[in-house]
Amino acid sequence: MKKIIKKFYKINKCKIIQLDSNDKMNIGYGSLNYKIVSHNKSYLLKKYSLSRRNLNFVNSENKIIHLLNKKIKKIFPQIILNINKEKLTIVKKEKAIYRMLSFIEGKFLSESKHSYKLFSNFGKILGQINKELLKLEDEAIESRKIEWDIKNLNWNRKYLEYIEDVETKKLVEYFLLQYNENVFSNDCNLRSSIIHNDANDWNILVNKDNIIGVIDFGDMVKTYMINEVAIALSYILVEKENIITWIIKFLKPYNKSIKLKSIEIDLLYYLIPARLCTTILKSSFHEKEDPSDKYITISKKGATDLLKKWITINPILLQDRIKKELEIPIKKRPSNLDLIKDRKKYLSKAYSLSYNSPIQINKAAFQYMYDSIGNTYLDAYNNVPLVGHEHPKITKSAQKQIAKLNTNTRYLYSNLSEYSKLLLKKFPKKFKKVFYVNSGSAASDLAIRIAKTYTQNKNIAILEQGYHGNTSRGINISHYKYSGKGGHKKKKNIIELPIPNSINKKRMFKSKSLLINHAIKKIEKKKSLCALIAEPIVGCAGQVFLPKNYIKKLYTSIKKIGGLYISDETQTGFGRLGKYFWGYEMHEIIPDIIILGKPIGNGHPMAAVITTEKINKSFENGMEFFSSFGGNPVSCEIGKSVLKIIEEEKLQKNSLIVGNYLINKLNTLKNKFKLIHEVRGLGLFIGIEFKNMNGKPATKETKYITNQLKKEFILVSTDGEYNNVIKIKPPLCFSFANADILIESLEKIIRKLI
């Protein structure tokens, strides 16, 4: 090396320090980098493997550096000519290309104290660079295709398997999907340009708040111009609070140098995480391939932390805040008042809205929901999206199947039997048959129909405040509905069984054994019975837990008079209870028929009825069972994905540990505040019952707390006969941090209330 330096650059005495090499050296391009120190002067010597591709690219790099030094203040490396006045030195014997540059001394941006002024100066410089390069054409750069180009994000999808952390992998998959859905569709609307493509905080040199050097142009490509901004921000936003404020400080001077388009600002929300995903994917791969190579993995933790923070940002908030600051028109969206007016015009008043001030939801992701004005809500009760809102695996499975085939069960298709096999594996061996429908209501209706056919009896035992669907039969067996406002009287064939109640003295029993005995006597009065239909935990009653052995003892009485036990797992199934995958397991009895709904499709309209071969045989009486959409191929694929996600992401375990944590925290609040009457819960199926100073249901107070939590951007709802129970049934990806936020806000609101 010293011989090369002496021969071609006339530097006789020098110290050579090898710097971190570019990770792309091993695939044919990139460089080995050396700091040359001689007589208090420093240089950067770069060595490339000799190839036409590298030769063309390095010549292009020199051309662009020269241009930028000419057009912008000299903060870029100067090209040092060799003794032949050439910018490049080719040593054929070594099959190498050498290039000497001035060495810019300074402090890296990554090692500097960040300030708004520094960010502004960085944005200004980067804007100037992009302005000069926007119209530039260069064949060598334009023909270059690399994995570090955000435009080629999907090239890195193959590295997904190397991400070990389940949460990180899920987030990366989500943003890969969002990139494809939002950026690819706007390809023709985005400006293309040659960009630096690696303006990270280790390639920017600073002195206090000033940018004094921009180095390493080795990743230059022609791609979307806005990618330059996304890349820079993906590094400098790491460990920042008030992320949007920092972005604006960067973008305002950038925009003065080169005006951004509205679509470029909109897509920035997806481009920043796209770069973060690239970093995580490639780092995860290189960690496996070469754990000792820290160069490529140095930014992985920062990228991961920022990605986890990014998911909490509402895209509309980012887009509108930037546009407002840059004085770019903001597209008008329908107001809540407009939508309410339309609902009143087109929908029945029987439809209800949550909260005193309804929310217009535009988008959701996992346990977060985004409204139309930029707010992000923590979803703490929407129990339908069990594995999280818009989970990428669910979305992809639906997209893939619906593009292939969606028909009905009168035709043969493999995924119907595949899913049925997987689903039935989750139950005891006696369950051999599954019926598919589109909702829990339809499933309840069908379950009763099957039971009536098998028993040839019409008498149905139900639990007080139970709910089993919106069909006529569903309403008839739902005490919660027919006993409430607008309901009808109890049908003659309905047997109402009591549940624990500590507030309504009219239905209060002195002991649990008396309650159980009362229920048994009501059953024994009947000479025959079709079925008992019951939720393992009575949800609409306010997450009411049944006494130990209640269902077990009822089961014995039911069987004596020929009845069946139907377990309605619409709310309790699929691991929500943490300790149990199915709610009936907590009662130590196996049902005859099981109803599945809500979480089975993570929001997709599907449901099922599970039963035994013997009961099924009675239903095979010549009348065809057909549901137009029940068990369709798309539903089956989604169902398969739900089961897979629960297992892969260990969501049942998460429900148990986070649920226990949250319940313990809530009980601590209960000990502080008399307003909290009782905390009831198992896993992430939780109810908080409130009573006032007179010992009566605190209906008004509960409604107030619910609406105040909404103002704190936390979504919960109420249940119970008196709507004095807050229900908490979040997606099972709910975290300890989410639980802490909920507890903190709840305590603050209660303190103000009392």
- Residue windows where pLDDT falls under 50 for at least 5 positions: 22-29
Which structural class fits the helix and strand makeup? alpha+beta
How would you characterize the largest beta sheet?
7 strands, mixed
Strand order of the largest sheet: 15-23-22-21-18-16-17
Radius of gyration: 32 Å
Q: Termini separation (Å)?
A: 78 Å
Count of alpha and pi helical runs: 23
The count of β-strands is: 28
Architecture of the largest domain in CATH? Alpha-Beta Complex
Account of the protein in words:
By secondary structure, the protein is of the alpha+beta class. The chain has 4 domains: 2-102, Phosphorylase Kinase, domain 1 (2-Layer Sandwich), CATH 3.30.200; 108-325, Aminoglycoside phosphotransferase (APH), C-terminal lobe (Aminoglycoside 3'-phosphotransferase, Chain: A, domain 2), CATH 3.90.1200.10; 337-387 and 651-753, Alpha-Beta Complex (Aspartate Aminotransferase, domain 1); 439-618, Aspartate Aminotransferase, domain 2. It contains 23 helices and 28 strands. The chain has a 7-stranded mixed sheet with strand order 15-23-22-21-18-16-17, with helices on both faces. Strands 1, 2, 3, 4, 5 and 6 form a 6-stranded antiparallel sheet that branches. A 4-stranded mixed sheet has the order 12-13-14-26. A hairpin with a 2-residue loop joins strand 12 (361-365) and strand 13. The longest helix has 28 residues, at 262-289. The N and C termini lie far apart (78 Å). The model is unreliable at 22-29 (pLDDT under 50).
